[in-house]
Amino acid sequence: MTCILETRSLNKEFGAVIAAKDLNVQIHKGEVVGVIGSNGAGKTTFINMVTGYLKPTRGEILFNGKSIMGHSPRAITRAGMARSFQVAQLFPEMTVLDNLIVALAAAESARPSFLSPLRSDARIARAEEVLKEFGVANYRDSMVTAVPQGARKLVDIAMALIGNPQMLLLDEPTSGVSMDEKTGLMDTVMNAVRQHGVTVLFVEHDMDVVERYVSRVLAFYSGEIIADGKPAAVLADQQVRDLVTGHRPTIKQGNGAS
Amino acid sequence: MRLDKTEISLGLIALGCVLFGFVSPGWLIFLLTIALAKALVVQGVVMQMRSGLVSFGQGLFYCIGGYTVGMGGQFFGIHDAVAALSLGMFVAIIIAMLLGLLLTRYREIFFAMLSLAFSMILFGILVKSQELGSTDGFNVHDWTLFGWAPEAGAGSQYTVFTMTVVSGLIVAVLIHRYTKAGIGVICEAVRENEVRVEYLGLSPRWLLYGNYVAAAAVSALGGGLTALATGHVDPEMAYWTTSGEFVFIALLGGLGHVAAPFIAAIVFSFVRTYAIEFVPHTWQMILGFTLLAVIIFLPKGLWSLVSREKTGERA
């Protein structure tokens, strides 16, 4: 498989704190990769470096074989790598439809027009199509602030996907979403992702979500990758159980004890 | 070019203003001319407010527009009003292109104070320039319009009023389209969430830069028209109280519609004129109370009275 994203000896230091240590990762086209790790393990730092938000201290990042070191987030987005955020990053004083129209217009051109209307029929139709795809069409004309958390997350991801990126990075897509909504949200996102043929890397704390949706897992601990492989193997790894997922108590049926 | 309802309404109001000018007394025409010219400067302030930046130094471009018109006639033999106004806008664009490189790196109070600083630097330079009349400024030469020289007095006053109304109409239509166009809406998006705009593949800084330069051009036009109407320019045009007045009018009108700055500028001019007339020693207090009342009762400005009426809302 062709490698779409590669990091070589990627390091990030904040003074004496080492947030990322010699990260060597290869993500292949079409993969769905889950990134797990406890708080402060370096997951978001990794995503922030790859998407240009943080400048690595050392190392190299290649996207489609070309270095993107030192590139701005917008240049990386334009190169085909989009992202969503732990806290949905939307335009709160706009409607859901307008959020998507802005994202679509941005994807079409880096130089927005001075006089042609943003809300063209073609853009409205495309944005409505994406809203339906993500199951949030009923919020079309709602202000973002009036939309539930789960739907906001979906709009955030839809905005990242509307520009047809090659790779999508999702930072904790199910955080702040109720247990009941998680599966529905991830099903919707993964269906959309499959249709667009996008490579996905997502940070997640819920191991059930990880097991269910990813083809590969990267386990982070203290700025390092301690395991990389199929979900079943990584989640069964003793070191991962000790340092990342913890030992889940075995519940014995019948006697009420755990 | 298809015109929408707002543009047709603006056109009809402009026509009404021009016709009203025929039957109005000179003092009223003058007051309206100055109010509308200042409204153009306020349009520049509002354009930036929509993108989340408050300029406390828009007097810089107001002054550049005015002084370019004055200096064009005084030193370079440019007597045609349209040529002088265009030159004023051109000079403002060039200066905004230079200053914008620095200013668009800053946000919030830092942008406000830096824009004010540049305006005060120009004020300082003009005050020290004996050739430009120092604190007294200088008079603007008689001007022509495409070779036609309006008769001095009422003729000239009515001509500059008509020019201001037409300029106001053109600017209002362009800004109306601009606010609905890609850059206008995305500038509002920058105000709401700059990080997201960056991650959509756009540069917030360059968007703000384009907006800043466009706002400078509009404000310079207002300054040039004021110079033609008053026949005089002085450094006060760049002073911080002048810039403060533009922010005052912007808050008075609100950001809700392109017509809001025009309405607010007219209301402001009347309130100030009558306050000076009836309470000459405390007129600033009257203006202060007016702004206070607007902020408390109409936080979205005078335009919210119109929009409430339209949407059937009750206060």
From TrEMBL, chain A:
Pfam families: ABC_tran. CDD domains: ABC_Mj1267_LivG_branched. One of its GO terms (molecular function) is ATP binding. PROSITE patterns: ABC_TRANSPORTER_2. The keyword ATP-binding applies. Residues 5-247 form the ABC transporter domain. Keywords: ATP-binding, Nucleotide-binding, Transport. The keyword ATP-binding applies. InterPro entries: AAA+_ATPase (IPR003593), ABC_AA/LPS_Transport (IPR051120), ABC_transporter-like_ATP-bd (IPR003439), P-loop_NTPase (IPR027417). It comes from the Bacteria. Coiled coil: none annotated. This is ABC transporter ATP-binding protein.
Automatic annotation (TrEMBL), chain B:
InterPro entries: ABC_transp_permease, LivM-like. It is found in: Cell membrane. The keyword Cell membrane applies. The keyword RNA-binding does not apply. The chain crosses the membrane at residues 12-41, 53-76, 82-102, 109-127, 158-175, 246-271, 283-303. It comes from the Bacteria. It is a multi-pass membrane protein. PANTHER family: ABC TRANSPORTER ATP-BINDING PROTEIN (PTHR30482:SF17), HIGH-AFFINITY BRANCHED-CHAIN AMINO ACID TRANSPORT SYSTEM PERMEASE (PTHR30482). This is Branched-chain amino acid ABC transporter permease.
